[in-house]
Design a protein that fits this description.
The protein has three domains: 46 residues, no CATH class; 96 residues, OB fold (Dihydrolipoamide Acetyltransferase, E2P); 84 residues, Nucleic acid-binding proteins (OB fold (Dihydrolipoamide Acetyltransferase, E2P)). The longest helix is centred in the N-terminal third of the chain and has 14 residues. It is globular, with a radius of gyration of 20 Å. The chain has 250 residues and is an alpha+beta fold. 17% of the residues lie in helices and 42% in strands. It has five helices and 15 strands.
Length: 250
């Protein structure tokens, strides 16, 4: 393990053991067909646990040649351009404008990531985080590119469920809960459960009081969950339960 992996682990050492962290890195690498190195896989884990805030670079501080993580809102989406690659195949690229409280720059998506726009996963108003993007300078200013080693996290504020949305199913698994310190110094709690519905098996992340609430249930119990928060990450929908969510036994 490189030294920077140890630095990443230091950010979550109160949540995970070193062995769990290393195993999670290997699992992330497997999910991405071993295209990610250890550091980027570790960065994804740290980011999912909310411990990567100090690593976010403000747009005004971007410099050409830099590899960084930024977060901002999409304010404009250009046209998709199709081009011929050297191997004879075609590729596609699209330019977006991304802004934070400090400045605006171009966000360039390539190839399969363009589908996130075509499929309406990313729209004007979406909040996105680019992990391990790289900065280039063009004639119109700075741009951040999402290349082979970059990761896109999407959190569209319009993706939350309404109060009448719910799922019903059987609890297949309740993971051990984990405690962690938030950036403000307060304790937080997180766990994951798996629910078998009529059509699929769903993984759900529970936070804080919902972690405590789920402890009164066991595998095999049938429950109904209301007020679920949906988030998008690399085009994959994640389900989260927070203070607004309701858990009922059927």
């Amino acid at each position: 393990m490189q030294k920077n992996i140890d630095q990443l682990y230091a950010k979550i050492s109160d949540i995970q053991t070193k062995k769990e962290f290393i195993n999670d890195i290997k699992n992330i690498q497997k999910q991405y067909d071993d295209l990610l190195d250890e550091y980027i896989a570790g960065l994804i884990i740290v980011d999912k646990l909310g411990r990567n805030k100090d690593s976010i670079t403000k747009i005004k501080d971007l410099e050409p040649g830099m590899e960084c993580t930024i977060e901002g809102k999409i304010t404009n989406i250009g046209e998709t351009h199709v081009f011929n690659k050297k191997n004879g195949l075609t590729g596609q690229v699209i330019n977006l404008d991304i802004t934070d409280e400090t400045d605006t720059c171009k966000l360039v998506l390539w190839h399969k990531d363009v589908e996130l726009v075509k499929n309406k996963k990313i729209t004007v108003g979406s909040t996105v985080k680019i992990i391990n993007g790289y900065v280039k300078q063009n004639q119109n200013g700075k741009e951040i590119n999402v290349g082979r080693w970059g990761i896109i996290e999407i959190q569209d504020n319009n993706k939350e469920t309404s109060n009448n949305n719910s799922i019903k199913g059987e609890i297949l698994e309740i993971k051990p809960s984990k405690a962690f310190f938030r950036d403000n110094g307060e304790f937080g709690f997180v766990t994951n459960i798996k629910i078998k519905t009529k059509n699929e098996i769903i993984k759900i992340t529970l936070w804080d009081e919902k972690v405590k609430e789920i402890q009164k249930y066991k595998t095999g119990d049938k429950i109904q969950i209301e007020n679920i928060t949906f988030k998008q990450k690399n085009g994959v929908k994640e389900l989260h339960l927070n203070g607004k969510s309701i858990i009922k036994k059927l």
